């Protein structure tokens, strides 16, 4: 009872503090109306759902299987799977961010070349295209400051090229250095750099399309145990009870799980080796 009262008081204080913060923010911003805090705020709940990490879905799935199979083992396996799924999802997100950054670098080269042909100076062209494309990443402030105040733009571009997906900025730095020291045309060099980066991007997309069938095979291999369990239920058997409540079933579950994980990792490693090649 005491714990429930403390929890309710904390919730009321949190809600009141949240409302006070909103009121203070609106007053400092120069006006607006403050809506009273209610128990149901759809926007807040939607934001909370978006912040929910997908790897934590392993816990409800494990809980459901634990209830159906009347065993705590699926819940333990779901809890153990959370860090592994988190690592895989983070790696996939980093890969997507790397590809988006590479595409933005290609757009940056084309944007600078277009601005130069429109009559802008190189520094102004870099400022305009850099803000528009977002290809400079975390080094955007340093690169744009160097372009605006006459700093060492090639050095800042090379530092920005160390970030994942920004490798093409090293070519931009080389073109910039050649155009400043040797007087060569920066626009023509950027056109050639853009063409080379686009050819590399097309090659990567073509390789991904060719490997789509191999990735489908990996997914099918991963789903085969689920298909086997579904067939067991369809035939009137109770595979979860056998796997979770008998010594032979537990042994088969552990052995099959290890073999399945090894097979999926092996197949995925082969496909990734093809991607790297």
UniProtKB/TrEMBL annotation:
Residues 113-230 form the Type II secretion system protein GspF domain. It is found in: Cell membrane. It holds the Pfam family T2SSF. InterPro entries: T2SS_GspF_dom. It is a multi-pass membrane protein. Keywords: Cell membrane, Membrane, Transmembrane, Transmembrane helix. The chain crosses the membrane at residues 61-85, 211-236, 248-271. This is Type II secretion system F family protein. It comes from Streptomyces formicae.
